[in-house]
Design goal:
Length: 441
């Protein structure tokens, strides 16, 4: 852009200033086709999340534990085989009378296939399996909660990056507007209708705007790096985002939202799962002192039977056993008492969670209404400040106002645009936050 200065060249530094201003912006504004939407960013973050991968492995471990625990419903089968040599005599004999008799062969063989199982335990094994099932449900609920937290974090981060991108664009627009205004002032300096002081004042405003732009670009880059880390792009690559700011009015129904949140919020689900698990534990402890009936069968071969101790003969045995707990020093009684207190504490925790969720819903709904009202106000403010700037530029050319008046109008206009952008961000975030507290995001 050619810059004309007054005859004494007092404005000649401005050409270099504009080069310094716009070259970095051109570099920063290079097109990047790797643009992320909210859904794509969330998908990548969930795929990359170390927390979710860890929970998945915990789930697999718990499933393996539950499958292993199912063995309590099946009989235990074992094969025992033994061989013993007695020497140096051929066999072990006892002298009785003129000849005596043999007690054990020199080669002792004993092989048996044994099986045993619990026949009846008043449902203790089933309750143990139910406990593992509750652990699986709790782990699923915690995974769902971790997923929702990641979704909320990534969504807020992407929306913030979108706001910063637009903020950078507005600041660049402000610099370009100041450059155009400076051209007008320089021409007015040449015609004698303005002073060099006013041209320098505009240049100073440009430098200040450029400093603010650098701050905005730096903040944007840091947020983009944070997003790259969250989605697993670890090579320093940054992603621009594409988000449409919502400006449609939404009037929430508080009662309906509270009902939806009560059904969908993972925190409430976790509280209920904890109560159910404690209830199963309580039922299991009630049966701790009940008897257990078991049976066993053994089939095999061995030697050592009179009258021929060397002969290997088949044998078998069958038995039943009834185990009745009699005294445990009060262990079960104290554990039941402790469990009752934990159950009551879990009930109170669930009530607190429900009340907290209801409060969050009401606050989020209030934020949506307030943010929408502010959005309408800032939209009108932008329209009026833009009109004011246009009138000020015309009056400056006509010579009825000063350069400072135009700079004030420019400042008001771009401040209004930044405020409107922040209100757009606030409204969009409030809608997402409302979905989050409902548990539907």
């Amino acid at each position: 852009m050619p810059i004309q200065c007054s005859p004494d060249k007092s404005c000649s530094f401005s050409g270099l200033l504009l080069v310094i201003l716009f070259i970095p912006m051109a570099l920063f504004g290079q097109k990047n086709d790797d643009t992320l939407t909210i859904d794509e960013a969330v998908r990548r973050a969930l795929e990359y999340s170390h927390d979710l991968k860890g929970l998945a492995e915990q789930y697999k471990a718990l499933v393996a534990d539950s499958l292993g625990t199912r063995s309590i419903f099946y009989p235990e089968v074992s094969l025992d085989a033994s061989y013993a040599f007695i020497g140096p005599k051929d066999n072990f004999t006892i002298k009785f009378g003129p000849t005596g008799f043999a007690m054990a062969p020199q080669n002792n063989i004993d092989t048996h296939l044994k099986t045993s199982m619990v026949l009846w335990d008043f449902g203790k094994r089933k309750l143990s399996m139910d406990m593992l099932g509750k652990d699986l449900q709790l782990l699923n609920a915690n995974a769902a909660l971790a997923t929702r937290l990641i979704e909320s974090k990534v969504t807020a981060l992407v929306i913030e990056i979108a706001m910063l991108q637009k903020g950078v664009a507005i600041r660049r627009e402000n610099i370009e507007s100041l450059a155009r205004h400076r051209d007008i002032v320089i021409k007015m300096v040449e015609t004698g209708s303005s002073t060099e002081y006013e041209a320098v004042t505009v240049s100073a405003k440009q430098a200040s705007a450029r400093s603010l732009l650098l701050d905005a670009e730096n903040t944007l880059y840091k947020k983009q790096i944070t997003l790259s880390q969250v989605i697993g792009t670890l090579n320093g690559h940054v992603h621009p985002v594409n988000v449409s700011f919502d400006s449609t009015e939404y009037v929430p129904d508080i009662d309906s939202l509270i009902g939806v949140a009560g059904k969908n919020r993972t925190e409430i689900r976790i509280g209920r799962e904890k109560l159910e698990k404690l209830s199963v534990q309580r039922d299991l402890l009630k049966k701790e002192m009940l008897p257990v009936l078991a049976a066993s069968v053994s089939v095999g071969v061995k030697n050592g039977y009179p009258s021929d101790v060397d002969a290997v003969k088949p044998d078998w045995s069958a038995a039943t056993a009834l185990s009745i707990p009699v005294f445990d020093g009060g262990d079960v009684r104290h554990r039941r008492s402790a469990l009752e207190h934990r159950f009551i504490a879990a009930q109170e925790e669930l009530r607190k969670t429900v009340e907290q969720v209801n409060t969050e819903v009401m606050l989020a709904a209030q934020d949506v209404g307030t943010a929408y009202k502010k959005l309408g106000i800032s939209q009108v403010q932008v329209a009026f400040s833009e009109q004011s700037l246009s009138i000020a530029e015309q009056k400056l050319i006509a010579g009825t106002i000063t350069n400072n008046d135009v700079l004030d109008s420019q400042r008001d206009y771009f401040q209004a645009k930044m405020i409107h952008l922040q209100n757009q961000l606030q409204y969009t975030l409030s809608l997402y936050m409302l979905k989050t507290v409902e548990g539907v995001l």
